Each structure stands twice: as structure tokens, then as C-alpha cells.
Amino acid sequence: MTAALPAPGAELPPLRHAATRLQLFRYSAVTWNPHRIHFEEEYARSEGHAGTLVHSHLRAALALRCVAEGLPGWTIAEVKYRVRRPVVPGTELVYGARVREAAGDAAVLELTETHPGGEVGLAGTVTVRRAGREADR
Amino acid sequence: MSHPLPPAVADTPLGRYYAATKPREGERETRDLGVLDALTIRRYALTVGARDPIHHDAGAARAAGYADVVAPPNLLAAIFEWGAGTPEDELAPDGTPRAAADDPGAGLRGMGAGEEMELLAPVVAGTRVLCDEILDAVVYKDTRGGPCVFVTALHVFRTPDGTVLNRNRRTVVRRNPHEEP
User: Fold this and answer.
1) Alpha-carbon distance B38 to A60, whole Å?
2) Which residues of B touch A83 (CB under 8 A)?
């Protein structure tokens, strides 16, 4: 079923998530990412970080889940984001998506990752289109 | 070669990295990444918490019009190494692959800084993927966190017949080993 497109200004249900170290390990494994800042606490601290860091691509995947789960039947067509601050596991993150503009079969939403103190850790935009079957492309 | 680095930065690992990398702007390389299998898609979806059956169940994916299970939107962009990967003794101190034994970037710190993705066609299991990588921009900036080099690369993921799946422009920020993030 394809969700009705919310009006500009509307917000999709937020996705709340705190990444665990186990999730970071599995994300490094499945993406075959050997970067030590994501799985080795002591090394990450030696680089000046507060601890191991959540992968920026994992954070983007969580932000995109907020859109995909909030707009079933719509396809994510374009994504732009910037990482503003690092995140350590256990941080309660809130991913939000707010409709900026909508017309016909497309819409642009503003994406945010908000930290417990209210800071925005990741921000961007995503363009969605009404999903078409692969066979129709 | 002339570049805008302050003299104090030029004679550091970051300065040498910048001097070696800046002239490579515009360089292009094509790699055959192999066939994306259903297990990788399922594991990626499981790890990021994407529960939609189109990522996990071939029947559900087919019912939705796809040939097989579909990758979550940023899977292609997120895979760090394709194939077997880099032997441990060829990794830099931070664990990332060295381009060569004398890579002037060895010892630098790196983090993802942002990305732009165009998702042009569904990525389904069984797809053979090629990647055209173009070094787009190498930019020096003196930031609040110290001197940084922002390296932006364009990755065009496509099939052998030329169908473009994703077009991604990703920026990674590099810092000297002694700089705080």
C-alpha cells in the first residue's frame, strides 16, 4: 500500500535508536570495514574521540529507515547529508524527516539526527518518488 | 608545486598527503566489484534494522515487482571493501587500506563528512556491479578542529550493460595524527 503524501511541514514518525557496540561490530563486518575507530575503544580514544564511533553510513541508513518506514510505497531517489558531529554507541538518537515540499509524485524532506542535548549530528535532504515496479522501469 | 597550505602545515603528513593527492584530481578508475549476493543484502538489512520483507524474502520481493531481494538504499555506498579485502600487513595504522607502501597518507586520520546519492535503479541480488571512481576534489581547509583536507570522490555504480544504479559523491575529511577531531 502506498502512503498518502503528507503536506509540507508535516513530520514523519521519528525513529529512535541507540546503536550498540554489537551493532557497530556487525556493521563493520557486513561492510568489510577494518577502520579501527569503529570497533577498538582504546584506538578510537587515541585519536581523540570519546570512544568508538558509529559509522556515518550506519547513521545515514537509520535516517533513511525513518523515511522508508514513514512513507511505505515511496522510493528514495536522492539523498544529501552532512555529518556535523561524531556519535558514540549508546547515545539516544532521534531521526526525523519533515516534508519541505511536495508535488505530484515527488516530495523533498529534511532529514535530521538529533542528539540528547538537542544538537543536530547529521542533517540533509531526501527526495522520494511514488514507487514503480521494477518491471515498469 | 604551489598550493595554499601554510608553511607550518606543508611539512606535516597532512601537507604531504595534500601535495601528493591534489594533482590526482580528475583521475578515474573502474573496478569490477563482482556479484552482489542475497546474503549480503539480508545481513546489511538485518544490521541496520530494515525489516521490510523486500530486503529478506525473495518471494516478497518478487511480489513487489523485483527480481530478487532488494538492497537498502545506501548498501552499495556503505560497503568498504569488496572481494577478499586487504591483507592486514598492508593496512595503515588506523586499519584502513594503504594505497601503497609509501602512501604519504599513512598515519592520517579519516572520517566520513557527508554524501550525495542518486538512487537511479533498484539494486537486487544477483546484480554484477562495476564502479567508476573519479577523484572529484581535494580541498584544504583550516577548521576549528585544525587543518583538514576534504577529499571528495564520485562513485558511479553500474551494471556491465551500462545501467547506472547509484551515483554517489562522498567526502572524507583527513587530519594529521596529532589533531583532535
Assistant:
1) 21
2) 111-114
